[in-house]
Amino acid sequence: MKPERNVWLMYAIALLQGMVFYGPIAALYRQSAGITIFQITIIEAISLTLCLLFELPWGIVADRIGYKKTMLFCCVLYFLSKIVFWKAAGFGAFLAERIMLSIVISGLSGVDSSILYLSCDKSRAQKIFGIYNNLQTIGLLFAAAIYSLFIKDNYRLSGFLTVCSYGIAAIIAFWLVEVKNNDNEKAKAEVKEFVELLKRTLKNKYLILFLIGVALLNETHQTITVFLNQIQYVKCGLSDSAIGYIYIGVTIVGVLGVFSERLTRKLGIMRFASILYGAAAMACIILAATADAWLSVVSIVMLRISFSLFQPLQMELQNRQVISQNRATELSINAVIIDCTGIGANLIYGKLADIDITFAMLAGSFLCLAGFLLFYLWQTKYRENEYNINTNI
């Protein structure tokens, strides 16, 4: 009997970890504590690199010690990182927080989705992934509303409330049920299997095309909706308060990801993916061409919706292609490829944005179209009704 309670506990953790009360003023919070925007970008680059370095070791460790212990450790460290962030002042402290966060992100990569996937019926997986992602969005929305209505310019209070929500999430993680069978006597066999998994992944050119295609859309959304959108809004003459309310609105539309499974079933994987990649590319083109506030907001919303609907689909497709019992390890290998692509794309966006925000937005449209082409090439090999994938894990 599957541990269905894991799903509900993971839902609660997702909701609480979505409650980042300083979300609307993340950059301003750091600036008020004494670091510059350039220093913020340096910290982000270091963080991405560390995530890449920690990814594979964490996958092996998670498969050795079990998914519950890994999840518990990461949730506790997540909580501690928020305490560091709350009290941080200066480059060193924020870098330390980001190093801790890199350990957490790489540790959770593949583990959270594996717990969900192995705790439910496979026919419900995409729907559950959609709910899981949406609860994170709902948590962020709730926190943003509390910030706008009550916290306002009290940055440190927003940091403290975030500490509280992450502390509760860490406590909830203690009640998770292990879903992976562990056998320490198989340690050498697992290392050998890791090497085989790595070789098999690198030889699977279609899987690599899929992962790079996914990464290009993910990184376009991440960079534009978290960082470049603020530059675009200033370009359009919007005030700080208006940017705050837009942040809430953009966060709200993220919950539309719950419809991902239904739309995939209705439209089919390829048609649905083509709509999402196309909408994201169009949004970037509009952002590059306009200085109108309304058009800019609508475009950011389009990009957010495309990503929110795509996330549950790509999570389900990744899990569907796992062929070994060491699910976290295999997904970690996938994440390394995604992270490498993300680092490259992020550097492109950063360099072009320094020159002109228009160039960065145009790059977003090209990368989205390139991502769709790679996704299409993958789909020609694994058509919707002709997958050569073992789904009986």
Q: Summary?
A:
With 393 residues, this protein is an all-alpha fold. 80% of the residues lie in helices and 0% in strands.
Number of domains: 2
Count the E strands: 0
For CATH, the homologous superfamily of the largest domain is named as MFS general substrate transporter like domains
Main sheet: strands, sense, barrel: none
Radius of gyration: 20 Å
Share in helix: over 70%
Total of DSSP H or I helical runs spanning 4+ residues? 16
Name given to the CATH architecture of the largest domain: Up-down Bundle
**Strand proportion:** under 5%
Low-confidence parts: 384-393
Q: What's the average pLDDT?
A: 86
Alpha carbon gap, first and last residue: 15 Å
CATH domain class of the largest domain: Mainly Alpha
Membrane topology: Multi-pass membrane protein
InterPro entries: MFS (IPR011701), MFS_DHA3_Transporter (IPR053160), MFS_dom (IPR020846), MFS_trans_sf (IPR036259)
Transmembrane segments: 7-29, 35-58, 70-93, 99-119, 131-151, 157-177, 206-230, 242-260, 272-288, 294-310, 331-349, 355-378
Main location: membrane
